[in-house]
Design brief:
Belongs to the iron/ascorbate-dependent oxidoreductase family. This protein is about 30% helix and about 20% strand. It contains 21 helices and 26 strands.
Length: about 700
């Protein structure tokens, strides 16, 4: 139906009263947004105040009894008010079924949905509507919803819509245990050691589930899906689809952070009721949903609340006792910034004297030295960051399952990057190597200088800064320690004592997951067995880097690592919780942030595997931004062919008659070419093309 017809209609009547909803309006084929939906400028999302390098915590609930996990939950509730949980125990099928049921409901004819409008619904507990409160709003929100207040299973069976009642009931029932786990952990920090029947009723005495639908919008920048608000619940448990669009206000700031969809995760947020009951210790934080110009979006929140008749103010007196002895408003002290003398030779201090860029940052710079100012085309353009997308997250606990294998191979083909959880590398190993990285970079310059190119007792150990300072137009804001693994004995002899054991243990512990990934990836290439020769070619050598990115005075003018792809077969990356890694979205100029997920590893395909797969698996450009508020570390393991190996498309890939895209290349020549120049995107792989 052409959009011109809308001009002669009473849009509010059509959308609100006649039950078409905003979905019906969107399906008319609108070319511009009706004026009823145009929000005041102050209510629209200002993209300049989005912080794309930050993300809310992601918490693995598989060991929720562990005090460390409990601390992560409570800290997130205090400092963010929002977090995501994985391995929460709600079955994948339940999540998928309720999303499918949401689509089925909103695809019903208007006359069916109209039966559940406020004026027509047989019960106050079932309500189809649009926007939030249309009669009270200055501008309407671009959203339809079905709200289902849970009383009993029998009442739900009688009145909830048949197309979705079983699936929504199952989602509520399946989430009950995780809700109780979360509340048990949260109230324990409030000195509530037992949730008795009265407190359970107070915390979770009522539940409401919403099915939300956000249709494609012709002018998404002019409206909102949901306006700024906090929830009135104790907790909200949100199931997102994979579209994205939920933003959370960063506490005590005007900045906003996107909540990237993570497959099979649930988003948890604190509601006003729990903020009140905790006397402000847990924070109910403002959030909003943007409209989307390209895709329809659904979400399914469960609002876990007190009973309507409960009185919640001062309901947990033990909290008040606890807070009287606590001081949460401490102002951090900062060292005064120092001006650099004009005569300081920055390159000499950083590169040759072993201070690294950390030494430069520790001086207290107020502005970026000119040696680090990147050309505009090499800085990240935040307008090209696609904040509503994220690389796949894959649970490796059932890696023999064909669905998991397909997810790994699909990610390698379509993204070149993915994150893995439940990978088998112990959390202690990950934490230890991160701590060891900090210890190394805290060493005095005179100690680190012993491992510089000029002083290191072996070519296998190298402390440096930037990438190749002698070949770069502008330096990168990063220091590194590079450790090429030869043997345990060689590592024990030459690797720095403050980190050698932890770095070796990370390499050893990751060996099995690397083999699992390669086994899965090779199978799609018709390689049914990885014999000794192939294993040597795929993972015959390894290098581990400890990377350090100090706080930067002008992060927008420089980079942590420039655009490049890795020369490895696979790279296994451990991030800390700061963020800053961006991946180019395939075949576009857009970039996607890789949000840190606690306990996860980031996997990316390297050039060697792209060549061996004849271009089927993609080695993708990525980069790291500098950060003005936090130092960051990362620990990649580069899994490579041996230097003496000749790499090219595998025979099994070409046996069906596929034409080779790459020539046979001596791997050491390929690597030498990579390190002979500055970072330059994907240009290195051209070296191997036919």
């Amino acid at each position: 139906m052409p959009s011109i017809l809308v001009k002669s209609r009473d849009i509010t009547t059509f959308v609100v009263k006649e039950g078409h909803g905003v979905k019906g309006l969107a399906e008319m084929g609108l070319e511009s947004l009706p004026e009823q939906y145009i929000q005041p400028p102050e209510e629209r999302m200002d993209t300049s105040i989005i912080v794309p390098e930050e993300s809310i915590p992601v918490i693995d609930m598989s060991h929720w009894h562990d005090p460390k996990v409990a601390d992560l939950i409570c800290d997130a509730a205090e400092k963010w008010g929002f977090f995501q949980i994985v391995n929460h125990g709600v079955p994948t099928e339940v999540l998928k079924d309720v999303k499918d049921a949401s689509h089925r409901f909103f695809n019903l004819p208007a006359e069916e949905k109209r039966k559940l409008l406020k004026e027509n619904s047989p019960t106050n507990n079932v309500r189809f509507g649009t926007s939030f409160t249309p009669e009270a709003e200055k501008a309407l929100e671009w959203k339809d919803y079905l709200s289902l207040f849970y009383v009993t299973d029998d009442e739900a069976a009688a009145f909830w819509p048949p197309v979705c009642k079983n699936q929504t009931l199952e989602f509520i029932q399946s989430s009950d245990l995780v809700v109780k786990k979360l509340l048990q952990v949260l109230v324990r920090r409030l000195n509530v050691t037992e949730i008795n029947e009265t407190k359970e009723s107070l915390l979770m005495g009522s539940k409401r589930i919403n099915l939300n639908y956000y249709p494609i919008c012709p002018n998404p920048e002019l409206t909102v899906g949901v306006g700024r608000h906090s929830d009135v619940s104790s907790l909200t448990i949100l199931l997102q689809d994979d579209i994205g669009g939920l933003y959370v206000r960063k506490m005590v700031s005007d900045s906003w952070i996107h909540v990237s969809p993570i497959s099979e995760s649930l988003v948890i947020n604190i509601g006003d009721a729990l903020q009140i009951m905790s006397n402000g210790r847990y924070k109910s934080v403002e959030h909003r949903v943007v409209a989307n110009g390209r895709k329809n979006r659904i979400s399914v929140p469960i609002f876990v609340s007190p009973k309507p008749t409960d009185v919640i103010v001062k309901s947990l007196p033990s909290t008040l006792i606890f807070l009287k002895s606590s001081n949460y408003l401490q102002t951090p002290t900062m060292a005064p910034a120092l001006d650099l003398p004009n005569s300081l030779d920055v390159t000499k201090l950083v590169v040759y004297e072993g201070h690294g860029v950390k030494g430069l940052a520790d001086i207290g710079l107020q502005c970026l030295p000119e040696q680090y100012i990147q050309p505009p085309e090499e800085r990240i353009d935040m307008s090209k960051v696609v904040s509503e997308e994220s690389v796949p997250v894959i649970d490796m606990s059932q890696w023999h399952d064909q669905k998991v294998a397909d997810s790994v191979c699909d990610a390698a083909e379509k993204w070149g990057f993915f994150q893995i959880v439940n990978h088998g590398v112990p959390i202690e190993v990950l934490e230890d190597v991160k701590e060891a990285t900090h210890r190394f970079f805290e060493l005095p310059a005179v100690e680190k200088r012993k491992y510089s190119k000029e002083n290191s007792p072996t070519k296998s150990v190298r402390f440096g800064t930037s990438f190749t300072p002698e070949a770069e137009k502008a330096l990168e804001w990063k220091d590194y320690l590079s450790l090429f693994y030869v043997t345990d004995d060689e590592a024990s002899t030459f690797w720095p004592p403050v980190c050698k054991n932890q770095a070796q243990e990370f390499i050893r512990s990751s060996e099995l997951v690397i083999k699992k990934l390669l086994q899965v990836l090779m199978r799609r290439l018709n390689v049914n067995e990885i014999d000794e020769q192939k294993e040597s070619m795929l993972m015959g050598s390894k290098r581990i880097n400890l990377n350090y990115y100090p706080i930067c005075p002008n992060p927008e003018l420089t980079i942590g690592v420039g655009r490049h792809s890795d020369v490895s077969t696979l790279t296994v990356l451990l991030q800390d919780d700061i963020g800053g890694l961006y991946v180019r979205k395939m075949d576009t100029d857009s970039w996607v942030h890789v949000p840190p997920i606690s306990g996860s590893l980031v996997i990316n395909v390297g050039d060697a595997l792209q060549i061996m797969s004849n271009g089927r698996y993609k080695s993708i450009e990525h980069r790291v931004v500098a950060n003005g508020s936090n130092g960051r570390i990362s620990v990649p393991i580069f899994v490579n062919p041996r230097p003496a190996d000749v790499i090219g498309p595998l025979a099994e890939v070409l046996e069906s008659g596929e034409e080779p895209m790459y020539k046979q290349v001596l791997y050491s020549d390929y690597v030498r070419h990579f390190f002979s120049k500055g970072h330059d995107g994907k240009d290195t792989v051209e070296f191997a093309k036919i």
